[in-house]
């Protein structure tokens, strides 16, 4: 009885296992890159260097800093404030104190202030979960289509 039940669900189980293995392989081969976002602001009349006032890419100690002008900050013009984002590409999420220290080195001598920061990492266990679900779905779809072909509709 159990072997018949497992045999009837073979494609579902195979899809589940294949999806889990594919997700685990992709998870293990992903490079652990992280993007740290740092938001800073300054008064509109403040003179800033090009690397803080334009969309630029800076490399310092093997870490890439990309200054990006954000559009959501246009609402602050009434307050005479401009706000920019810096994307920091590194191999890990950088702790906030270290992030502030690096930003202070970039903005040394200029009147800018740190607002907030966050980190998003590209390496996540969600990869394994996604591929497992995709494998499960494909296995169930194959099983469903095969069952449609095998069984003829009953007529009364």
Average pLDDT, rounded to a whole number, is: 78
Number of strands: 5
Radius of gyration: 26 Å
| Residue share in helix | 40-55%
Strand proportion: 25-35%
Major β-sheet, in short?
5 strands, antiparallel
Strands in their spatial order, largest beta sheet: 2-3-4-1-5
Shape verdict: elongated
Structural class: alpha+beta
Distance between the ends: 28 Å
The topology string of helices and strands comes to HHEHEEEHEH
**Low confidence ranges:** none
Helical segment tally?
5
Description of the structure:
- By secondary structure, the chain is α+β, with helices and mostly antiparallel strands.
- 43% of the residues lie in helices and 26% in strands.
- It has five helices and five strands; from the N terminus they run ααβαβββαβα.
- The chain has helices spanning 2-8, 10-29, 50-53, 96-106, 126-150; strands spanning 34-43, 56-60, 63-69, 81-90, 113-121.
- A five-stranded antiparallel beta sheet has the order 2-3-4-1-5.
- Strand 2 and strand 3 (63-69) form a beta hairpin.
- The chain is elongated and about 80 Å long.
- 13% of the residues are buried.
- The model has no long low-confidence stretch (mean pLDDT 78).
Q: How are the elements arranged and paired?
A:
Blueprint: H1 2-8, H2 10-29, E1 34-43, H3 50-53, E2 56-60, E3 63-69, E4 81-90, H4 96-106, E5 113-121, H5 126-150
